[in-house]
Every structure is written in structure tokens, then in C-alpha cells.
């Protein structure tokens, strides 16, 4: 697959019939797989269907080291897991030589086409793809995206990145059919949600719009209770917003000085303004210097 080739086109051009069969034992799951949660009920339904009709769509794999007869799964993990559950000896496959970037892009797009990824997996998959393309780690990709967003909005007057990098990022989003601005506004903030909310999101039990509403509850105990209620009672977004409003209005407890300080420090660290918004960071530095001066006064 040529670099920068549209991955949707590549998937569409793959043959519908298997080119060969492989031993299930010769296939290993991909470490690049963006999908982490597999719904047990849906997997059971697929297993039943495969038991009755067989695997109708071949798996896409790529060869690992030459000569070891091992293949890495690129697309079709649910079918692969169902085959394992049924203890099938072989599965129908299509074999292609693919780079890490191409394999991840194909896996991501295949899952998106089937609406298989939840919001967190989708976000982390895009960041992982950008990391491979740009040779950056997770935090560097996130910082770069915020810088590019500020640049597009005119918040940064000087050029914070090379033209080639900007074009690479835009090409990846275009190839995946994503809106860059929507991804920054609606997807990237998900990674800053409290851990218990991220876990429920990854499990596919909660929509991201509901998750962000619940995250507005700062009191941990109240937030965890509302999260449990939202999942168990399948609350609508409006119902969740009403409960959030009720929780906030009922909280008359005073915030201690230590809590205020801890909250501010946490916000400063998570925002990473020194990377995402250098101009705002300059103002923060000035305020920090003023605070230090005030504290040191007799």
C-alpha cells in the first residue's frame, strides 16, 4: 500500500474472497489494535453465526519476520476471537505486506467503518497513528495538536511547527475522514476525564456526551454514584444534566484552602499551558512570581 494512499480505498479494493487459509495458531493479535473492549454478548452472537455459516469475510493479516511462518492480525479480531472460541483449525485470510502505520490505519478505519470503536479507543487510535507517522510519543502528539489548533485560531503569532509537519497532520485527518477542529474540541478532552469515567467509556457502556456531563461533578463520591446510576438506569443525557445540577445546588460544603491549592495545581499540570498556550503561560508565570513574592514577605 503506497504511503498516503487513502485507506478507505485500500479496504474497498481488497478481494471479498479469501486468498488462502491459515492455521489459527499461526496468527497473533496486533499490539497496534486500537480496539481494547469487546462486547461479550455481541461476540457470542458472532460466534453462533460463524458456527452456523462459517467465516464469510476473510481476515486481513501481514507477515511477521520472514521464515517464521507467523502472521499479525490487522483487521477482523472479533472473527479471530470467535474462531478461537470455536477451536477452528484454520481461518480464511488475505495477506498483505504492511508497515506499522499502514496496519494501524487499516485497523482503525475498518473498526470505524463498522462503528466498533468507542470514543476513547477512537481518540487513542488516532493519536497512536499520528505518533507513528510523526515519530512522537503520546504526550508530544497531544501537545502538537493543541499547538496546531492555536495556530489555526490565530492565538499563536509565530510559527510553532514546520510546514511539513502541519501538512502531515492534515493529510492523516483527511485520509481518515475526520474533522480536525471537531477532534480537538470533542475527542481530545476525553483523555483528561477521571479514570473511573474513562474505564466505563472504554467498556462501551456510556456515550461520551454523557461522560463529559458527569465529569462536571467535582466531588468524587457524588460523581461515582452518578456514574453508576447512569449505567444501571441507562439515564438520558438530559436526565444526567438534571442530576448534575441537583448535586451542584445541594453542595453547600466549604472548600478548604488545601483543596483549592490542590485543585489549582492539578489544573496547571493537566493543562500543560507551557506547551499548549505559551502566551497564557507567560501570564501564569507572572502570577506565580507575584504569589511567591507575597508569600515571602514578612
Annotated CATH architecture of the largest domain: Alpha-Beta Complex
Low-confidence stretches: 1-5
Overall outline:
globular
- Overall pLDDT level: 82
Distance between the termini: 69 Å
What's the name of the CATH homologous superfamily of the largest domain?
A: Conserved hypothetical protein from pyrococcus furiosus pfu- 392566-001, ParB domain
Lateral strand order in the biggest sheet: 1-5-3-4-2
- Helix share bin: 55-70%
The sequence of SSEs as H and E is: HEEHEEHEHHHHHHHHHHHH
Count every helix, treating DSSP H or I runs of 4 or more residues as helices: 15
Q: What's the total count of β strands?
A: 5
Largest sheet: 5 strands, mixed
Which CATH top level class of the largest domain fits? Answer: Alpha Beta
The portion of residues forming beta strands comes to: 5-15%
Number of domains: 4
Radius of gyration: 24 Å
Domain ParB-like N-terminal: 20-112
GO biological process, one term: chromosome segregation
InterPro entries: Chromosome_partition/occlusion (IPR050336), HTH_ParB/Spo0J (IPR041468), ParB/RepB/Spo0J (IPR004437), ParB/Sulfiredoxin_sf (IPR036086), ParB_N (IPR003115)
Protein name: ParB/RepB/Spo0J family partition protein
Question: How do you describe this structure in short?
Answer:
The protein has 298 residues and is an alpha/beta fold. It has helices at 7-13, 40-53, 77-85, 100-113, 119-134, 138-152, 163-176, 180-187, 195-202, 208-214, 220-232, 237-250, 257-271, 273-276, 278-296; strands at 20-23, 27-28, 59-63, 71-75, 90-95. Residues 214-243 form a coiled coil.
Amino acid at each position: 500500500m503506497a504511503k498516503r494512499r487513502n485507506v478507505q480505498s485500500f479496504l474497498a479494493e481488497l478481494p471479498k474472497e479469501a486468498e488462502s487459509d491459515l492455521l489459527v495458531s499461526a496468527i497473533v493479535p496486533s499490539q497496534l489494535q486500537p480496539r481494547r473492549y469487546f462486547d461479550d454478548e455481541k461476540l457470542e452472537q458472532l460466534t453462533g453465526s460463524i458456527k452456523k455459516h462459517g467465516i464469510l469475510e476473510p481476515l486481513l493479516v501481514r507477515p511477521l519476520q520472514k521464515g517464521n511462518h507467523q502472521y499479525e492480525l490487522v483487521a477482523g479480531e472479533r472473527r479471530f476471537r470467535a474462531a478461537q472460541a470455536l477451536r477452528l483449525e484454520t481461518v480464511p485470510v488475505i495477506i498483505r505486506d504492511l508497515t506499522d502505520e499502514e496496519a494501524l490505519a487499516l485497523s482503525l478505519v475498518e473498526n470505524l467503518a463498522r462503528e466498533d470503536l468507542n470514543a476513547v479507543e477512537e481518540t487513542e487510535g488516532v493519536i497512536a497513528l499520528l505518533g507513528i507517522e510523526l515519530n512522537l510519543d503520546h504526550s508530544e502528539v497531544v501537545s502538537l495538536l493543541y499547538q496546531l489548533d492555536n495556530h489555526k485560531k490565530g492565538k499563536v503569532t509565530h510559527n510553532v511547527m514546520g510546514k511539513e509537519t502541519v501538512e502531515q497532520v492534515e493529510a492523516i485527518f483527511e485520509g481518515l475522514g475526520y474533522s480536525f477542529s471537531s477532534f480537538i474540541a470533542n475527542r481530545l478532552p476525553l483523555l483528561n476525564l477521571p479514570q473511573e469515567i474513562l474505564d466505563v467509556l472504554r467498556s462501551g457502556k456510556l456515550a461520551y456526551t454523557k461522560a463529559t456531563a458527569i465529569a462536571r461533578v467535582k466531588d468524587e463520591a457524588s460523581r461515582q454514584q452518578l456514574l453508576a446510576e447512569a449505567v444501571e438506569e441507562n439515564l438520558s443525557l438530559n436526565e444526567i444534566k438534571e442530576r448534575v445540577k441537583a448535586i451542584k445546588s445541594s453542595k453547600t460544603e466549604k472548600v478548604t484552602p488545601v483543596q483549592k491549592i490542590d485543585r489549582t495545581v492539578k489544573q496547571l499540570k493537566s493543562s500543560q499551558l507551557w506547551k499548549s498556550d505559551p502566551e497564557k503561560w507567560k501570564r501564569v508565570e507572572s502570577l506565580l512570581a507575584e504569589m511567591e513574592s507575597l508569600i515571602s514577605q514578612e
